[in-house]
Amino acid sequence: MSAVVNRGRGFREFVPPPHFPNADAAVYEARHRRPEEAVDILFVNPPAPDRGIWIRSQHRVGRRSREGMIWPQVSLAQLAALFPDYKVAVIDAIPTRMSWPDFEAELERLRPRYYVTQVTAPTLRNDMYGAFLARSLGAKTIAFGTHVTPVPLETMEAFPALDYVLIGEPELTLRELVDFSEREAGRGERPLEADFRRRLDKLFRDSDPTWEGIAADLSGIKGLVWRRGSEVVINPPRPFIRHLDDLPIPRHELLPLKHYRAPLVKGSYAFVVTSRGCPAGCRFCIKHVSYGQSVRFRSPENVLEELEYLVSLGVHSVHMYADLFTVSREQVTGICEGILERKLNIRWTCNSRVDFVDPEMLQLMHRAGCWMISWGIESGNREILRRVRKGITPEQVERALRWSREAGIHNWGYFIIGLPGETEETIQETIRFAKKLPLDLALFHIAAPHPGTPFFFEVVENGWFRPGTQWEQVDMDRSTVLDYPNLPAERLEYWARVAFRSWAFRPRPMLTYLKMMLSSPALLGTALRIGLESLGWAAG
């Protein structure tokens, strides 16, 4: 029985009985009780912030997919491959169209000790909601990606449910953090095959000759951002992984492969990362935030091993996912010749710059199964290309796309509306240029000043940010954070719609887009709705 003591003047004090149950302890025990399905590490691409399809990537921008693409989360599969001695799982909520209530139920079922998610600017608060849910279930929450790398302090201060940020390449920082945390929790070292242990040690030592084993405390883990009480600590950066061949093959089997879709691709497809980094100096590009100006390659043999593995999983469509696939002619030639020699049954796409191809290489790529190349063209105006340090000319664009068409490869062009120096006249020049190119598909994005890029700092310095800007507005497809004196945000959004309409409303493009939608009946409604929104014919 409890007791109530009268303290006079109507005040009463509750006095617990001698053996009053400890509710806090009971709740804690229930919250940390691990079900049989529980995993050690959960790698997460969380649900979308709306009913659309969102693209998130380790070293690309986040955006809402206007072309109906569902990107394979190869970065999560790569991270998972670093932990063969732990019980791991991947949740990719985008292709399965998982709702937030269903996602929360999965968290309850899996009860991870470590929750690892990638974060992009347009989905920041949405992504952090997932971290909040995981944190409430007792998980250590960890974020990586193109937003948290350049602004880790602001992210950690704004979202207290986030325990750690991994700056730059996340693989080795995450491995060291988890091993350190397990040791500190008294769970000891996991049994690991000797060959994998040697590979892991080589990865650490080749990347950082000063590495002497798992750090003694958090301050010794390079590339980590963490909390020391109320203080956010940013450790020194971790050197890049020197030899990409030393990384294990990504665990594609953990991904919902049958749900990934791309325009004009029948059935599922996968991403294969062939290199990291790009030598170009484009001022708007976010790739350099994570990888600088360095370029590191996988050997053709290593790439072919992954391609054979994907074929064994029943995947025959691949996108060679690189910052610049054709940067090394030797590597491209080796991959193509290997595909032909091994008679691999695959069709594949890639990206390129117009100044990194030649007719002979394009013809070899086509014979090896390449059927489409996406080109970053950006603008038809020579001065804008020069100002953003794109390093190409309109003449090079026309020549490369003609070579590609002659080799039998389809062309997909990407353009950017609203780069510095843009006017309504230069936008119309870009539209005219796009219409005369041999393009099968084209997209016109609005320029996005992503944190850490030279373009971002130029926008800050000149006061070009739209008043009241929030990170979630950095969406290249539907809205903009830019407000130039001669081109306010509303005009940029207007011209992005006009550009797409003008290019698409012609017989050949309309036939291509019809084929694109019909190539994936499951995405027909989504692709049609997103297309109408792009044209300004439907509410967002």
Question: Could you explain the architecture of this structure?
Answer:
The N terminus and C terminus are likely disordered. The protein is built from 18 helices and 19 strands. Helix 9 crosses helix 10, helix 10 packs parallel to helix 11 and helix 14 packs parallel to helix 16. With 540 residues, it is of the alpha/beta class. Helix content is 37%, strand content 16%. The chain folds into two domains: 199 residues, no CATH class; 274 residues, TIM Barrel. The strands form five sheets. Strands 6-3-7-8-9-10-11 form a seven-stranded mixed sheet, sandwiched between helices. Strands 12-15-16-17-18-19 form a six-stranded parallel sheet. Helix 11 links the parallel strand 16 and strand 17.
CATH superfamily of the largest domain: Aldolase class I
Could you tell me the radius of gyration in angstroms? 25 Å
Question: What characterizes the major β-sheet?
Answer: 7 strands, mixed
Task: Name the shape in a single word.
Answer: globular
CATH class of the largest domain: Alpha Beta
The SS-based structural class is: alpha/beta
Helix content: 25-40%
CATH topology of the largest domain: TIM Barrel
In the CATH hierarchy, the architecture of the largest domain is Alpha-Beta Barrel
Number of separate domains? 2
DSSP, total strands: 19
Give the structure's gist in a few sentences.
With 540 residues, the protein is of the alpha/beta class. The protein has 18 helices and 19 strands.
